[in-house]
Amino acid sequence: MMILRKVLLVLMLVLLPVAIAFANQDNGKDAPYFSRMPSYYINDSSQREYDSHEFVTSDDDDKVRVEGKKYYVEYVPKDENNPPSVLQIIRNYANAILSKGGTVLYTHDNGTLTARMQSNSKEIWLEVSASPSGEYSVTIVEKEAMRQDVKASDLLTSLNNNGHVPLYINFDTGKADIKPEHQSVIHEIVSLLTQNPGIRLIVEGHTDNVGDSESNKMLSEERAKAVVNALVQKGISSDRLQAVGYGQEKAVADNSTDDGRAKNRRVELVKR
Known about the structure:
Shape: elongated
CATH superfamily of the largest domain: OmpA-like domain
Number of helices: 6
Radius of gyration: 25 Å
Distance between the termini: 86 Å
CATH class of the largest domain: Alpha Beta
Helix content: 25-40%
Order of helices and strands: HEEHEEEEHEHEHEHE
Number of strands: 10
CATH architecture of the largest domain: 2-Layer Sandwich
Structural class: alpha+beta
């Protein structure tokens, strides 16, 4: 029995460092633009080509939703008994963003940092969330409009098969101005209607559930009208078009997630 105990003790002494070393291995990849704190490993990470995140910008819980390529990384200290303080983590990233010419938009003693910078003509948003245990997460979004490569033929197929087609024409918060990067989508709708003079469309505006329902309905109608006006300006008869705003009434995805809300913020073409 004594020999068995000695063997088990030796095995524990040999395997424990191996287990610790294995636990401290990275489980994912770093996000771009910023290096991690020293003596940390990655506990989890994800990357999405297009998603959104709400960045806190004030103590009143004001938030800015930013859409684009999204990175998320969770970091854990290798020495959990002697982790850096929340302030040290936040200051480290604040200094990093300032050194790159960025701006710190918000910090809080609870371990939250929101910052923004420009990098190669891209607008980069950063959120750091740190805990007293030394663990922290980094969320980065490269801001951009949702890309949607559509052709008139694809629109026609979807209209014929489904009776409607969703388009992700993004607008600035609270506004109904069509951005220059979405003119290609407008061009394809014009091509569709020019090549198929018998088609008449309802342009529906839809939103997520952020804000009150009455304001969302008014805003969605304004955005639908903006699309109709853009088509009329390019020679399409207004008799063939109708603008309707449904606000948050016809969600197609879960509004409790960033990805779901992004899918709900849309304009749909519906065959009349």
